[in-house]
Amino acid sequence: MYIPHHYENTNVDEIKAFVKENGFGILVNQTDGKPWATHIPLELEQGPDGKDYLVGHLAKSNPQSKTLTENQEILCIFNGPHTYISASWYNSEEVPTWDYIAVHVYGKPQLMSEAETMESLHRLVDKYEEQSENPISLHDMSPKTLRQVKGVVGFKIAISKIQAAYKLSQTRPEDHENIKAGLRKRKDANSQDIAERI
After folding, report:
1. Domains assigned to the chain
2. Distance CA 78, CA 25 (A)
3. 56 three-class SS
4. CA-to-CA distance for 189 and 81, rounded, in angstroms?
5. CA-to-CA distance for 72 and 23, rounded, in angstroms?
6. Among 100, 91, 118, 56, which residue's Cα sits nearest to residue 194?
7. How far apart are CA 79 and CA 25, in angstroms?
8. Between 20 and 30 A from 119 (CA), which of 76, 137, 156, 197?
9. C-alpha dihedral (73, 156, 45, 196), degrees to nearest 10
10. Which residues fall within 8 angstroms of residue 89, CB to CB, at 6 or more apart?
């Protein structure tokens, strides 16, 4: 990803927290000679070896599941808040722009066994059910229902590189108060979030 140096974030702890909070990512690779992308939950986990991995699963019927080989690097994209920045908020003439947060994670996948996949699904469901009024657990589901796991391919991606762009009007500090005030007048969550981060 192209990141002008003003916007590059190298704070590993902050980036990891962002990926954990924005775990619905885009898995991108080459499938049948074409770029292919799937939108899926990808959980950042630490393996027994102390290394960081992204853990996920794909439907076996998804052609991308057949291209998860250790020889092919994969890109995972995580998007955060983003919003239009009006040039009317600047003290001097300049073009408008877009502020955003995006993280790209690269690595090579390793297929997981059915048992490992089931363990990862338990962790995924437990994490997101914590917020439910009446949380469910895969432990309470019948073997017949859980047979659906046979229709997925579980994988983990050994992370080799992370790039993070936090474009938050860093080049216009003199306009920050005006930009934040303009964003706070909008009702959408993205504008509110970017205003807090500037």
Report:
1. 5-197 (2.30.110.10)
2. 5
3. strand
4. 8
5. 22
6. 100
7. 7
8. 76
9. 50
10. 175, 178, 179, 181, 182
Q: State the amino acid at position 164 in one-letter form.
A: A
Q: Which two tokens stand for residue 34?
A: 């074409």
What tokens does 166 get? 């936090």
pTM over 0.85: yes
Q: Tell me which residue has tokens 């927290």.
A: 17
- Pairwise CA distance, residues 128 & 135, whole Å: 9
Residue 102: count other Cβ atoms within 10 Å of its Cβ.
19
Q: How far apart are CA 82 and CA 84, in angstroms?
A: 7
Output the CA–CA distances (angstroms, integers) from residue 8 to 23, 68, 109, in the order listed. Answer: 20, 29, 26
Rounded Cα distance, 140 and 134, in Å: 13
Q: How does pLDDT run across 65-105, given as a tens digit for each residue?
A: 998 887 789 999 999 999 999 999 999 999 999 999 999 99
Asked if 171 and 165 count as a contact pair (C-beta separation under 8 A), the reply is no
Q: Which of 193, 173, 32, 177 is nearest to 101 (CA)?
A: 193
Q: How far apart are CA 97 and CA 142, in angstroms?
A: 52
What per-residue confidence (pLDDT) applies to 136?
A: 86
In the block, which residue shows the tokens 């962002």?
18
101 backbone φψ class: left, alpha, beta (φ>0; ψ -120 to 50): beta
